[in-house]
Amino acid sequence: MVRIEPWGEGDLELLRAGNAAEMTQHLGGPEIAEKVLARHHRYVALNEGDTGRMFRIVASADGASVGSVGYWDHEWNGATVAEVGWMVLRPFQGRGIAVAAMRLLIDVVRAKGRYKRIHAFPNVENAASNAVCRRLGFTQLGEVDFEYPQGNPIRSRDWCLDLAQAPTPPPLIDS
Ligand SMILES: CC(C)(COP(=O)(O)OP(=O)(O)OC[C@H]1O[C@@H](n2cnc3c(N)ncnc32)[C@H](O)[C@@H]1OP(=O)(O)O)[C@@H](O)C(=O)NCCC(=O)NCCS
Q: What is the 105 CA–ligand 1 centroid distance (Å)?
């Protein structure tokens, strides 16, 4: 059972664990320790304001963190949209955790009532992240020049979920 918990002061280690070469190959590579710490502080601050939320993903009864999902304000084509991002630590990948956690995040964004659209901008070469968008029912709008993290230019796919559409259906349960 996957759940998401608000990012807090104690979650720096999760960010450090996600800062590995194989986790950041489509994101400009690992960040230096100071940048990871600054990112952690940004996540904590985001949860104290009104312009986004970061969460850690929990996928077992012991409460251990296996990844993160979050959303934040992004100005895009003249509107404020919710940009979303995600990561799942290597040992836990390939089990549907990213999609399950993102379904929960989409419910949070929808309930917030602040946005008409959610966008994701995965690197065109990030097959797993593009598959996550497709699985969640996002529509692919095309390729765009993007920057992630700040200062790192990438070629991205612009994926959009219109929140006026019906909520995403629950995952199918194997019989
Ligand atoms: C992207 C990421 C979060 C996916 O996490 P995950 O929990 O393994 O994803 P899921 O198990 O929910 O799988 C979702 C889809 O991705 C596909 N997928 C997973 N890994 C894949 C890979 N290496 N190549 C191609 N497709 C892949 C799955 O098959 C599934 O698609 P399907 O349902 O159509 O079969 C994970 O690979 C990751 O953290 N990567 C590094 C960080 C990153 O790139 N973050 C995103 C920045 S935009």
A: 16
| Residue 79, beta-bridge partner list | 76
Q: What is the pLDDT of residue 17?
A: 98
Residue-level pLDDT at 73? 98
Query: How many C-beta atoms surround the C-beta of residue 167 within 10 A?
Result: 11
Q: Is 18 helix (H, G, I), strand (E, B) or coil?
A: coil
Å from CA of 129 to ligand 1 middle: 5
Give the predicted TM-score (pTM) of the model: 0.94
Ranges of residues in the chain whose predicted pLDDT is under 50: 175
**DSSP characters for 62-128?**
T--EEEEEEEEEEEETTEEEEEEEEEE-GGGTTSSHHHHHHHHHHHHHHHH---SEEEE--BTT-HH
Cβ of residue 59 lying under 6 Å from some atom of ligand 1: no
Of all protein residues, the one whose alpha carbon is nearest to atom 23 of ligand 1 is: 128
Q: 87: Cβ below 6 Å to ligand 1?
A: yes
Q: pLDDT tens digits for 92-120?
A: 999 999 999 999 999 999 999 999 999 99
pLDDT at 150 (0 to 100): 87
Q: Atom 31, ligand 1: which residue's CA is nearest?
A: 131
